[in-house]
Amino acid sequence: GMRIVNADERRELLQETNDVALTGRVGLPSGDSPLLPSHISGPLAVDNFPCIVQTEMPPDTDPNGPTPDEIAGAACAVGSFLDGEQDTSEGSLLKHGAVLFKGLPIRTPEDFSVFAANLGWTVTTLVNGGTERSILAANVRTASDEPANHTIEPHCDMAHNPVFPGKIAFFMLEGPPANVGGETVLVDIRNVTAQLKASGLSEVFESHGGGGVMYRKVLWSAQHVDHSFTWQKRFFTEDRDEVDAKLRAMGNVIWRWTENDVLEFENTQPATTTHPVTGEELWFNGIHTNHKTYYETAPHIDTSLGSPMNALFGDGEEIDDETLALIRSTWWDNAVALALTSGDLCIVDNMLAGHGRMGWIPPHPRRMLLTHFE
């Protein structure tokens, strides 16, 4: 069985997470802007985002862990709970945007792979992502391989891309111990959309090329550079022809190969997108996480040959610092920081909820896995 926890249980489950400091984080883009909040809310400050579900599973008595059948059964139950009656269901993903499950019978990357395959959704592996990931099991990857002390700004996956995942499942394989950081960050995009609309930002983008955002990217060849911004890493192939085919399939990408097998490409996407089921117009783009300031301020990213990515107004003009700071502060203002523990599973609608993570103190472990769905 599954039930949404009540307010008292929610307080008990989440008591560990208080306000999390944002000020003074290493390599935080727009970090010196007075617009950015000094702290992020703990989840108790926000009414029922994310929605938390306690799963009532029979006790796990088998020393070998849960069986594939038990995992598949749990996945079917979660999938139907989230799909519900479109957006009228109590547990619906469309209603809440993000749902955190406690107590599921998942222990290993292989368990999570079985779980993902049985949710009733189509698993997808998308290329051209902004972060480095490692494949651990069928359709299961690390959420990010960035260094521990690096804070990843909240964002929606692949929002800079014509093709992006509809849903994402995050599984905390190994949660960090208390009080070392590493909180998972979730953001209600409906709130971000409303606030940015009220601030007049849509008109700013409309006046620069009709509301679009231009993304420019450079990927080097692994034969010539040591860092991870290579087309081999980001497109999961060693074959240039395969990269060409994948770019062609995206439809609106202009690209060229230059000296030393360097790939340069650009595409323009709208700053807002309509949700395919609810019809809501949502702020959905990669402006802040694809902007060169993200790469230039991250100490672990080598930008000696230039930034691998940049986001511009649709007419190709640079986006000014104030606009960037307003966008980033609106995301952080609506962010909730959660201390997830081993075994927690969080599922988000990629257009309704953004995600990120706070840096933590190495060498403490924190291992988060993900699977993308159409």
Automatic annotation (TrEMBL):
Keyword Cell inner membrane on entry: no
Domain TauD/TfdA-like: 83-369
UniProt KW keywords: Oxidoreductase
GO MF term (any one): oxidoreductase activity
Keyword Oxidoreductase: yes
Protein name: TauD/TfdA-like domain-containing protein
Entries under Pfam families matching the protein: TauD (PF02668)
Gene3D superfamilies the record matches: Clavaminate synthase-like
